[in-house]
Amino acid sequence: MIKNDIQEPPFLWGVTHIAPQVEAACLSNDWHYASCSGHVPSVGSGDEYLSQYVEHHDHVEALGCNALRVSVEWARIEPEEGVFDDFALQHYRKIFLDLKRRDIHVVLGLFHWSLPIWFATRYGMKHPRAREKFAVFMERVCAELGDVVDVVVILNEPMVYVGTGYLRGQRPPFRSSVIDAYRTVRNLIGIHRDTYDHWKKVYPQASVGSTHLWNDIQARDSTNVISDKILYLMECASAYFRVHYVVRRTRDRSDYLGINYYTSNTFYLGKKDGKWGLHTTNDWHSPDVWRHFAHGFGCVLRSAAKYGLPLYVMENGKPSNPGTEDADRQELLSDHVAVMRQKKQSLDIMGYFHHSLMDCYEWDSGYDFKFGLIEVDRDTLALRRRESFSTYRGIISKYL
Fold this sequence. Notes:
Number of helices: 13
CATH superfamily: Glycosidases
Strand content: 15-25%
Oligomer: single chain
Helix content: 40-55%
Strand order of the largest sheet: 1-2-3-4-5-7-10-11
Radius of gyration: 20 Å
Largest sheet: 8 strands, parallel, barrel
CATH class: Alpha Beta
Mean pLDDT: 93
Number of strands: 13
Number of domains: 1
Distance between the termini: 24 Å
CATH architecture: Alpha-Beta Barrel
CATH topology: TIM Barrel
Shape: globular
Order of helices and strands: EHHHEHHEHHEHHEEHEEEHEHEEEH
Structural class: alpha/beta
């Protein structure tokens, strides 16, 4: 539970604006190196947040948000091992002070998947010294920026990072090793615990935790009793490794539990496309696969609440087609907020962050998915507010 020395903050209405996704390419991180070799799309100029932060914050303020979920790029702050860039730290400070001047809470992420290339090549998250090296970076950030931070997000979707980077090999560091994956998970758990202890010692009033991809994934009922039992066990195993393994080992060092919710899915044993085996219901090749699943959102909130921690919805959203007309996103916002407010009557929900403020770099999908409340012209970087911008503004003004 939140400790007694923390002053309970107001309900936070915000959006996401994450460093590796909205800053221009960082030439000293592992994603830039991966893009140079053609393994992932190039970040390019991003959304030029570092230089255009005032304009971006104007949009956040126009929404009526009282919080912005941001992050810092480790590779900018420590571009070489043991060498810190004071200009980068002070620039981040200017950005966060601009938010504070507008009475916007700073929700700061520390690990959001990108790493300095020196760390990635010499160590990596699987390395026995990973916790030690991260601690050096974290403690410097805490010392330089901690006084302007309200909420700390230590880890973003740790099991997504492990699954895509150490099991499936589709993202940096492009490995497929169960042993390395296990070592990485253990290090990430250690990083969470180390960061919590240090940050709370220096800034006990801060709210500190991590956030997890927590989609609603369930076994589909079948007509076979044995098949149902097998599917149920697989459903439990899936949830355990996707979420619960890490949460159970970090809950005693968490002031809150973060949820990133996007979709629902079911899986079943049977025949699909002429093949027998384990299949999922969603068709990931369909342009409508991101349709909203508000009922599943309610299920996830109930499941997360069982840990007895306050909840933050740190990400929720969907991509839409290019252009400013996005009725699908408007519907998602209305339906999911309605579910959240209904659950809030009995659950301790502290905030909601829509992903994202504007179209941004979506990792190995590049700029293909348009998640933003604001459309970004990739040629000119001109910004145009989508219709959902007004929808979310109306929701915030009604409930804030």
